[in-house]
Amino acid sequence: MVLGAGFGGLAFVKAFPRDLARITVVDRTNHHLFQPLLYQVATAGLSAPDIAEPIRALVRKRPDVTVLMGTVTDADFERRTLTVDGRPSAFDLLVLAVGNRTSYFGNRSWAAFASGLKTIDDAIRIRRSVLHAFERAEVVDDDREREKLLTVAVVGGGPTGVEMAGALAELQRRVLARDFRRARLRSGRVVLVEASDRLLSPFPEKLSRRALEQLRSLGVQVLLGQRVEDVRDGELDLGETVIRAANIVWSAGVTTTDLVHDLPLRKDRGGRIEVAPDLSVPDHDGIYALGDAVVLRDAAGVSVPAIAPAAMQMGRHVAAECARRIRERDTTYGNGRPFVYRDKGYMATVGRSRAVARIGRLRFSGFTAWILWLTVHLAFLAGFENKLSVFVKWIFSYVFYRRGARVIHGIPDPSTRDGVPACETASRHSANQDST
To answer: Does residue 367 or residue 423 have the better pLDDT?
Structure first.
């Protein structure tokens, strides 16, 4: 059984030999999500189907793979069963590839006012809220209220925060500005808040500085060394400074899922699963864990980062280990081949023709890094149709400076009452009067 169809879980399924075992993939959604491009859905650059592919479509040619859409509510490692939506399912080998979720550092109440960016629902909600705020700014007469509506605050200076801030600035100042008459979107603000003294901490310091320069050239206000004290409705409290923003996006940290939190496994202070060098879980034979949910220093002494390439490498490693043990009928877990992480580098895009990248000892920034970023992300995107769709939309956006996914939907209609159209309510009221 494989829990999670993210990068790690999908890499396991693809690498596992055909017809050697029956594989069951369990996921709470029916799709594999390309999370690195979620920010483009949130900023109207791409639509949700462009970065998601149905899991069943990805494993269609593997009759040995079964897909279950559901939530694991209980796990009994002694009896080797999982309860999926109330139904027990037995397993011989278990692979935990469940990913992570947004962390508010113990302040869960902040989630109501600052949206994380981990799912398609998150991205669509952010896009709807941002575009709706701009539409409201077009009609309000109060200058102070308009300023708030045109302000977006992004918390966290990692790759997601940097990419989100850059895309929002381009959306405001270069894509939508000419479409509005009163709102004056070019006067709007995108504020990026980071608690440390530099952006993109995993990157070399020189590339961090380049990213900072590129963001500022787009008009993003970057606040370094600023810690969030509180988040309220439309307000980001930094202690001495309070930023009034109609939209606050949270990308400051991640934590393990509730399932991992509840499982009886060894964990570090951050709640991540501690694994043996071969990615097996100590004290639990036949259970492996990989991806963002684990903490590991590999055989070479490298601390494995919580990024997609690492999860994919882990998935392939665990697939090879499980296949070997099945073939050799090896029941001694924890003594397999140690995992060694191969660092492929880091990339982050800041905006149109702006990016930073480290590949081995090479450093890139600007247009070259941006082309590399585009190429790598297209290569790893699941599904040929998605690759083609995203490529065409990127070319169109680059040439015409336009975003295609700008339709706002999901806003309650003021003419409804309890979800019933006003005209239908009136008809019912009239019918009641007639019967009376």
So the answer is: 367
For residue 344, give both structure tokens.
């492929």
Q: Which two tokens stand for residue 170?
A: 């381009």
Q: Tokens for 10?
A: 């999908």
- Whether 163 is a known active-site residue: answer yes
Average pLDDT over residues 256-274: 88
With 0.85 as the threshold, say if the pTM is over it. Answer: yes
Tokens representing 176 are: 């939508």
Model confidence pLDDT, tens digit, residues 287-338: 999 999 999 988 778 889 989 999 999 999 999 999 999 998 876 666 789 9
E strands along 261-384, which residues? 273-274, 287-289, 294-295, 346-351, 354-359, 362-365
Residue with tokens 């979107």: 185
Per the listing, tokens 């992004």 go with: 154
Of 53, 78, 163, 424, which one is the catalytic site residue? 163
Please tell me the predicted confidence (pLDDT) of residue 419: 41
Q: Which residues of 382-421 are buried (b: 16+ CB within 10 A; e: fewer)?
A: bbeebbebbeebbeebeeeebbebbeeeeeeeeeeeeeee
Taking alpha carbons only, the member of 243, 293, 264 closest to residue 114 is 243
Whether 18 and 93 have beta carbons less than 8 Å apart is answered as no
